[in-house]
Design goal:
Layout (H helix, E strand, L loop, with lengths): L8 H10 L6 H8 L3 H10 L13 H15 L9 H4 L8 H16 L11 H20 L8 H16 L2 H32 L1
Helix pairs in contact: 1-6, 2-3, 3-4, 3-8, 4-7, 7-8, 8-9
Length: 200
């Protein structure tokens, strides 16, 4: 199957979600090919990116995201997963998927290719993987129920959507969001450390 073009990511994703065939992680990877990395990162980190304290419930998503980012850093062009994971059914209905499609459609309306030669190369893929791994780790180490995982996770989602749409401006916005999340985590962590130190 030919890979979807950048202008129709939401259309192709919606067609897959509502079409015939298995709704498994492996099937999604087969449809989107090389760009399945970015799309799977969006799906995995979309939940911790919601402005709701997760209490650590999304740690499994963050761990899987880091592992997949390491594959990208190692030079893989397509996702490799154990067959057991490839057979996992994906939730194709509900508020999250509906909201995700709306966000992608909105971005497609205003996004356009910017600095497209920067995408799809070995070096840029390594950089993409490093950014995703860093943002996912930052979300993972955020204190439970603090909501501090939101910005790093949102940064991963925006960078991944920027890669899907080949829009470097969107990537830059994602980088800024992720960096702001890390700075906020460090600031809160320092404040808590100083407070705890003062109690001793």
């Amino acid at each position: 199957m030919p890979e979807p073009d950048r202008a129709s990511v939401s259309r192709d994703l919606e067609a897959w979600l509502h079409g015939d065939g298995d709704k498994t992680l492996g099937a999604l990877i087969d449809v989107f090919g090389k760009r399945s990395f970015a799309l799977v990162f969006v799906l995995l980190m979309g939940v911790p990116a919601l402005p709701l304290p997760t209490g650590g419930a999304t740690h499994v998503f963050e761990v899987i995201t880091v592992l997949l980012a390491l594959e990208l850093i190692a030079g893989r062009e397509e996702i490799w997963l154990p067959e057991r994971w490839r057979r996992r059914e994906l939730a194709t209905e509900g508020r999250f998927v509906t909201g995700l499609l709306k966000v992608i459609r909105f971005l497609e309306r205003f996004s356009r290719p910017r600095l497209t030669p920067a995408f799809g190369h070995r070096l840029s893929n390594v950089g993409f993987g490093l950014v995703v791994a860093a943002g996912s780790i930052a979300a993972f180490v955020a204190p439970p129920f603090s909501g501090l995982d939101t910005l790093p996770a949102l940064g991963v989602v925006l960078v991944s959507l920027g890669v899907l749409l080949e829009d470097f401006v969107l990537v830059a916005v994602g980088l800024a969001a992720g960096a702001a999340g890390v700075v906020l985590e460090l600031a809160v962590g320092k404040a808590l450390f100083d407070w705890a130190k003062g109690l001793l």
